[in-house]
């Protein structure tokens, strides 16, 4: 949530925590909030995949 709000703020979009949750739950259709949420989620999934891959590589070298 913090990363979504920071991204929106950096882009000059005013949004509250409640507003982001409303968008996530489908009660709001603010496109800029949806896009920010998806970008943050994709970045997090990528970061986790990379961490898992590094872990596998380190485990394989032991």
TrEMBL record:
Q: Provide the protein name.
A: Uncharacterized protein
Organism, scientific name: Hymenobacter coccineus
